[in-house]
């Protein structure tokens, strides 16, 4: 716990010279000077303690730009005016990213970015296994995944997370789509569908 100005003032007064002209009574000159000095020490103590919190990317504010610079951020994925929470999530996701091409990898990466998704995988129609009512998919569907996520993921400003310049509410999944598309293996066709709708955005050509 950081020491406050109220903690430092009596400590400063105790180390000051003693004598008739060195009055420590409230309202005296020495008392006022000690209060000025104690505020400086209290402020420095608070900043030092905050450094322990700010050093971690998930709670960083002042050092967030340093974290971003080591990871090549900000980039177009974050948009033109990302919120503090979105910037933190992107930094954490980049740091925790160990690479991969499985459905679990994409799901975990999305969770690090603050999104909950589901992945639907397809396979071509096969005479030996298909039933009469099954849809007929072409060969390219073997490499197609549909990423289902809310079309408008709402994010509300929070006192302990948001910064002064953040909007009260943001929405959209541009960061999610951009980050997953950048990690999309060459053989895979990613499609993004909004949960509860039939809207799908292609990020690599059409499939038959």
Q: Could you write a compact summary of the structure shown?
A:
With 208 residues, the protein is an alpha+beta fold.
Q: What characteristic shape results from the CA principal axes?
A: rod-shaped
Ends apart, CA distance between termini = 63 Å
- Give the mean pLDDT: 80
Strand content: 5-15%
Q: What fraction, in percent, of the residue positions are helical?
A: 25-40%
Strand order of the largest sheet: 1-2-5-6
Main sheet attributes: strand count, strand direction, barrel closure: 4 strands, mixed
Give the total of beta strands: 6
Give the key terms.
alpha+beta, 6 helices, 37% helix, disordered C terminus, 2 domains
Q: What does this protein look like?
A:
It comes from Ameyamaea chiangmaiensis. This is DUF2313 domain-containing protein. Residues 197-208 have low confidence and may be disordered. It is built from six helices and six strands, in the order αααααββββαββ. The protein folds into two domains: 5-54; 64-202, no CATH class. The N and C termini lie far apart (63 Å). α1 (5-15) packs across α2 (29-54) and α4 packs antiparallel against α5 (103-113). By secondary structure, it is of the alpha+beta class.
């Amino acid at each position: 716990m950081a020491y406050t100005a109220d903690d430092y003032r009596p400590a400063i007064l105790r180390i000051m010279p003693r004598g008739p002209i060195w009055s420590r009574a409230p309202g005296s000159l020495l008392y006022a000077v000690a209060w000025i000095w104690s505020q400086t020490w209290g402020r420095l103590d608070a900043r030092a303690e905050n450094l322990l919190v700010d050093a971690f990317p998930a709670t960083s504010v002042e050092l967030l730009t340093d974290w971003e610079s080591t990871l090549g951020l900000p980039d177009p994925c974050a948009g033109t005016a990302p919120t503090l929470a979105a910037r933190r999530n992107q930094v954490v996701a980049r740091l925790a990213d160990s690479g991969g091409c499985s459905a679990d990898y994409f799901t975990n990466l999305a969770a690090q970015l603050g999104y909950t998704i589901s992945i639907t995988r397809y396979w071509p129609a096969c005479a030996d296994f298909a039933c009469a009512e099954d849809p007929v998919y072409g060969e390219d569907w073997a490499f197609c995944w549909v990423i289902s996520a809310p079309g408008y993921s709402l994010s509300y400003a929070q006192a302990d997370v948001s910064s002064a310049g953040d909007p009260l509410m943001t929405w959209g999944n541009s960061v999610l789509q951009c980050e997953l598309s950048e990690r999309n293996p060459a053989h895979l066709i990613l499609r993004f569908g909004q949960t509860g709708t039939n809207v799908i955005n292609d990020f690599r050509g059409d499939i038959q």
